[in-house]
Amino acid sequence: MAVTIKDVAKQAGVSPATVSRVIADNPRISSKTKQKVREVMEELGYFPNFQARNLVAKKSQTLGIVMENSATLAFQNPFFPEVLRGISTRAHGSQYGLYLSTGATQEEIHREVVEMAQGKRVDGIILLYSKIGDPVMEYLGQCGLPFSVVGRPYKDPETVSYVDNDNINNAKETVEYLIGLGHRHIAFVGGATDFVVSLDRMEGYRQALDQHDIPFVEAYAVNQELMQGKEREAIRQLMALDVPPTAIVTHDDMVAYEVIGYLEDLQIRVPEDISIIGFNNHAISKHLKPPLSTVDISIYELGLHAAELVLEKITDESVPPKQVVVSSRLIERGSCRRL
After folding, report:
1. Are residues 137 and 218 both part of a single domain?
2. What tens digit of pLDDT does each residue of 70-90 get?
3. Which of 258, 279, 304, 309, CA to CA, is 20 to 30 A from 78?
4. What sequence ranges are listed for the domain HTH lacI-type (predicted)?
């Protein structure tokens, strides 16, 4: 015979309404009562019918997760599994599931987000990127569905709940670290210039050069658009300059891995011939030979805060937009050396 909510209530010595509130993780129920009821549920083998509960509450208990690429491509970058770990931890604590976008193009992603919102598949959305002129963010700003963003929005950031690092200052401090090691010929290999994080890190790079009276050299600034799928040739041309760089700051650790491979093909050694530093501090970075110097941007915390922001908005739509800045730290390893 199936165990009912009344059976749990009787065994726990509370009302069926209290059991329902515990299942809904109502903050008004004490931690002691929640623990007692959950222990009884486990003891009796009672599993709540969330689908029925959600129909009554008109909630899906699901958060939509929107990535810049399809899930297949996104998971090739260690950033996304780690930020999802943070999101999942916070979502699980509020008994929310996750719905991952599967669109492979910008048009497909936009259509899927519209379907999520209009079809009430999710109660809120977390956008894992911030781009200039992104139709997805524009739609979310208009449709009324609670959402948060990992990354500073390019337009009217004070009107959006988002979490980010201080990417300008992080890049500035990274370049200043290399300047402190004696480098003055410092290149920047960045990402796509329609992503706000790429623009911010480039701005920090330029600010550091300017404050130390080091001229900005156009040929030292390489981005995804300039490379146009010819990354190996772009690095070869960079190192073939009359005055080649002695250090390279890369957009992230993934780019650093590629650049190190291209440098090896050119018989250019790291760090003996050139220093290199990345961002994100992926787990594999400390195992490279040499270990990669990098900036730890607290990816897990970015996901945790992104989930907190959207869940807070789902609970109370009157909550004003919040902006959270997560700390970062530079990790010195073996890929940089003093001149």
Report:
1. no
2. 555 556 789 999 999 999 999
3. 309
4. 3-57
